[in-house]
Amino acid sequence: MRDTKRHAVRLAISPVARRWIPHPFAPAHRAAGYRYQLSILQAEFALTQVLDRPPGRCFFEEVIRENLELGRPDQMQLIFTRRITRRTPGRFRTRVLTEGVMPSLHVEYKSKVKQYHKEGQALRTETTINDTYDFAKGRALRNLPALREIGFAANRRLLHVESLSLDCLIEEDAPHTVTSPVLVEHQRAAGLRCGDRRVHALMHALCLFALAPTGFRHRELRQHVAQLQARDPDTYPAAP
What is the pLDDT of residues 94-114, one digit of tens each? Predict the structure, then answer.
């Protein structure tokens, strides 16, 4: 299967390259049997993820703030799945570059991974391989499928590392959903006032029933809410 992919790549790229790249040999040289081969000097592999909400710039700036240590050796060996020691050559660093008002995140180790907010609506992740021998691959065109796997895998691992650092963040819609009233099957439920002591006691009491397999009743919940507020459960009202 891999040999088939390599052959398909050669068939797709070679005619285009031979059409636009001047032939280095004169007709007499070609008649004598001289030939040339295409090689890979640099390869770039990119993923573009279109964001479905307008404030993508704020999201990307948060990504930058949370991942300024991506260029450290222990992080780079996760992204490129290569064992890195103190003797590993190369420069490890994270850079944030700003062109005008648009920032971009650059993570460098021999090769480079770049991220930026593209056209105000997408997150662009690019891995550039500057030297194929850094990944034990030659520069012949047949190695392009293997380099493609390395490049796109690095993009996906970088996004996975970033998602771990952002999983703890609460979306802006979540507090609005909790504090706003809702209507479920023609029954209205009031929103929760998060600064209210009664709401804090309710949230605390609900945690007590997290492992209750048979559920709980309002009478049991009201008793705990009253105790958390130092109130008498018998006289504690069901409504505020």
Answer: 777 777 667 888 887 777 888
What is the CB neighbour count within 10 angstroms for residue 238?
9
- Do residues 166 and 81 touch, judged by C-beta distance below 8 A? no
Report DSSP state, residue 87. T
**At a CB cut-off of 8 Å and minimum separation 6, what does 233 contact?**
222, 223, 226, 227
Do 160 and 188 have their domain in common? no
Q: Report the number of distinct structural domains present in the chain.
A: 2
E-strand ranges in the chain read 43-50, 93-99, 102-109, 111-118, 122-129, 182-184, 187-189
Give me 229's structure tokens: 């507020």
Q: Which two tokens stand for residue 216?
A: 């709980």
Residue recorded with tokens 């060996």: 77
150: how many CB neighbours lie within 10 A of its CB?
A: 20
12 lies in some domain: no
- Spatial contact of 196 and 225, defined as CB atoms under 8 Å apart: no
Q: What is the pTM of this model?
A: 0.55
